[in-house]
């Protein structure tokens, strides 16, 4: 095919023939999606209802939870529709919309976790200056910048890809992935898109934040080694959920990076499917659960919230 407009849809080949099992998979995907929405919505509501939690760290946590719902919504509803479909086709428009949503979700996730690392660094290493350096006004501005920058970055990335001519339309995955869509191209100039994907997608979105986060963790560790037992406890309570969320996201991105570029037939099919969707299946549940279970203020606020609701009934 000479022109990319001749391809009106892509085929997601990794679904295969699910048979009657598709109803079970649909039910599991629906339960997962509802769980993601419920857990993150409760966390946001608890923080909103308790004025003691109207602090920079919890505002960042609200942003993180909102992004988890956004990330899951970018894939799981489409996944459920594809499970029930017999053709597993996705239109050109919705394929690129899905790529845009997933990439912005990951970029916002990394941006939020990066600024949360800085927040913990200031809180633990410069506690007497925390309220002066990290203000609510600054937090609001940073959150807006993270979202706008992520949307612009991914928009520029896709502006290169969407113009490429495509000779094939079969994507060997359960959702649209940018690198695999680029691989369908028969255009000689697809290098531009791949280079942009590497420079902006990998270096700016992943590598640069990780360098900064590693620096903040190094400073926090240095203070903890010299500090009191209270300082160590405070660092452990607030940094553990952050580290767990960051590790989970890194693993998901690393697997996505290698699975799209290397032959993964050695990985069992069910495991391959689960790992490919790890970032929108596990990450959106892990973050709110880790913060909700680990942070004492949130646990206290949640118990108060439940008590209030019980008394009202």
Features:
313 residues; mainly alpha; 3-stranded mixed β-sheet; 75% helix
Describe this structure in words.
- The structure is a single chain.
- By secondary structure, the chain is mainly alpha-helical.
- 75% of the residues lie in helices and 3% in strands.
- It contains 13 helices and three strands, in the order E-H-H-H-E-H-H-H-E-H-H-H-H-H-H-H.
- It has helices at 21-49, 56-73, 76-84, 92-125, 130-133, 136-161, 178-183, 191-226, 229-259, 269-276, 278-281, 283-294, 296-312, and strands spanning 9-12, 89-91, 170-171.
- A three-stranded mixed beta sheet has the order 2-1-3.
- Helix 8 (191-226) runs antiparallel to helix 9 (229-259).
- Residues 1-5 have low confidence and may be disordered.
**Alpha plus pi helix count:** 13
Give the overall form. Answer: globular
Helical percentage: over 70%
Q: Compute the gyration radius: what is it?
A: 21 Å
Q: Major sheet: size, sense and barrel closure?
A: 3 strands, mixed
Strand content: under 5%
Mean pLDDT: 85
Biggest sheet strand order reads: 2-1-3
Topology diagram in text:
Layout: E1 9-12, H1 21-49, H2 56-73, H3 76-84, E2 89-91, H4 92-125, H5 130-133, H6 136-161, E3 170-171, H7 178-183, H8 191-226, H9 229-259, H10 269-276, H11 278-281, H12 283-294, H13 296-312
Parallel strand pairs: 1-3
Antiparallel strand pairs: 1-2
Helix pairs in contact: 1-2, 1-3, 1-12, 1-13, 2-4, 2-6, 2-12, 4-6, 4-8, 4-9, 6-8, 8-9, 9-12
């Amino acid at each position: 095919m000479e022109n990319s407009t001749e391809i009106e849809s892509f085929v997601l080949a990794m679904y295969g023939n699910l048979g009657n099992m598709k109803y079970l998979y649909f039910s599991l995907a629906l339960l997962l999606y509802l769980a993601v929405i419920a857990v993150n919505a409760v966390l946001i509501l608890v923080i909103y209802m308790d004025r003691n939690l109207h602090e920079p760290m919890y505002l960042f946590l609200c942003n993180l939870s909102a992004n988890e719902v956004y990330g899951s919504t970018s894939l799981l509803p489409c996944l459920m529709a594809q499970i029930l479909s017999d053709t597993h086709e996705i239109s050109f428009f919705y394929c690129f919309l899905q790529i845009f949503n997933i990439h912005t979700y990951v970029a916002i996730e990394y941006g939020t976790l990066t600024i949360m690392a800085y927040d913990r660094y200031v809180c633990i290493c410069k506690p007497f200056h925390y309220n002066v350096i990290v203000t609510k006004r600054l937090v609001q501005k940073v959150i807006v910048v993270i979202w706008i920058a992520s949307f612009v970055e991914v928009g520029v990335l896709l502006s290169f890809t969407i113009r490429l001519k495509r000779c094939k339309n079969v994507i060997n995955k359960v959702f649209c992935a940018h690198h695999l869509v680029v691989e369908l191209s028969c255009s000689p100039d697809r290098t531009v898109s791949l280079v942009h994907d590497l420079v902006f997608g990998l270096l700016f979105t992943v590598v640069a934040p990780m360098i900064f986060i590693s620096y903040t963790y190094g400073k926090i560790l240095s203070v903890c080694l010299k500090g009191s037992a209270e300082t160590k406890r405070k660092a452990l309570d607030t940094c553990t959920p952050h580290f767990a969320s960051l590790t989970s996201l890194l693993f998901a991105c690393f697997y996505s990076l290698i699975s799209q570029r290397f032959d993964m037939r050695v990985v069992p099919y069910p495991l391959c499917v689960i790992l490919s969707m790890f970032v929108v299946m596990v990450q959106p549940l892990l973050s709110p659960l880790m913060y909700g279970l680990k942070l004492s203020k949130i646990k206290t606020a949640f118990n108060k919230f439940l008590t209030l609701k019980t008394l009202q009934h």
